[in-house]
Amino acid sequence: MLTFLRDLRAIKSRWLILILAFYFAFVLNLGFWRFVFEQVEITSGNMFLFMVSLFCVLMIFFIWFFSLLLIPVIGKPIIVVLLLISSAVNCFTYKMGTVIDSDMIRNVFETNLREASDFITLSNIFWITVTGVLPAILLILCKIQYQSGKKELLVRIVFFLIGIVVIGGFSATLTKEYASFLRNHNKARKMLNTFYYIYSTVQYFQKASLANREFVWLDRDVTSGSTDSKNLIILVIGETARTMNFSLNGYERETNPLLSKQKIINFKNATSCGTATAVSVPCIFSPKDRKNFDVNDAKYTQNLLDTLLIAGYEIFWLENDDGCKGVCERVPTENVVKTGSKEYCEKNYCRDEVMLLKLEERIKNHDKNEMIVLHTMGSHGPSYYQRYPEKFRKFTPTCDTADIHRCSRDEIVNTYDNTIFYTDYFLSSIIDIAKKFPDKEISILYVSDHGESLGENGVYLHGLPYAFAPQEQKHIPFFLWLSDLLQKRVDYVCLEKKAANEPVSHDYIFHSILGFLDIKTSLFDPSMDIFQGCYLKQKSL
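RESULT FIELD:
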């Protein structure tokens, strides 16, 4: 009986290679096939043949892959790991339309328990268990029968030769179809599960290995021109807020009833440096523009906070998201998740309102040049429903789960809009606090780190490669508020015209803050200063 069971579990290596190739090419690439069928219309016999050939080619690639990988002792444990990882990737690619590039790999390594827990849902656990855990257990239990070395090598050489012939045949007969598909659907290759995340992981570690070097000071000869002033600049970094859901920017729903009554300069055409926090936040504080910015360099290079420290500014970073991504390592920081009131905080997250008391106390004691950074939780998904208290549940019905794919798009948008409605209250409250101190020179700058997809074209959340990320992930809210004392430094009418007509981006923040605060440094580029052309005669009061 035991012999029979052992024989039942036994499988020849060549058959296992074919089974694994089919399983990975089809089941664990459902996200890829969903994308393909959404993009390609089968309008002719050639297009039908192209779709058949696409599956055959993908399966051949996996046959080659497992022919190299499936070797005694080490082959099985490696494939088990790939099954588990590919199952998880397939789950998120299919449900959210995400792409696992090197930036997404960076997000994985830099995430924390709070952020990761948002994705631990019954639906995701079930998906990964059925498509990953159970097949992995079956593979562990099965006995792989290998032939002699020469016969095993011969079989795999035959696999390679047959694959070359098949791919060559398809390439010769469907050249136009493949050329058109590859030219018009560049995202497709990045949706290929297993191959692309392996490539992205290697790419991430290659870049990370080059970044382990000494800190670079770009300019230590930094001085402040505002010797007689006590500037206080409050930089609020939003999370996952997209401009098209701000009524300030024309959204049909009233999501900004309070900010609309404040005297702010609203830049309607603003874009982010990246589509994920791990890239955007370091980029916001970098003197380099998006095209020249390298996130691997940022951690080891002088940023805006370092520059202000040299100029004599006091810096304070108040954190309510998932870390400053290396930006605030040399300045005092406080994580409100650890220190905040239970009135606003749950087990591993806080609503942004918890930061207001800390802020008012800080402003009250302000007596020198200072910068306060508030890194907010904002509209962080997929658990949008946790980002606001019940009294801000204005738009209903809502999606009260992290499994947003189970909700209708209306429910997802309603819930997201409630986060913006709450953000409106939070930001307006900051302005109201600043107004309590009319004798202080206070400026408030708000900008989101990136936007968010809410199901448009089957894409959710954020993090798509910048080159083909939709505008929903790149078009961000960006506004400025100045106290009465500081309004004397600029021509408000001039600034409002610029805000309405000229595009801005994260690239402008470094230079605009230095310009407005009259910081003298070689790093300053006046062409990237949003106030340029709108300053009154004297910048320093």
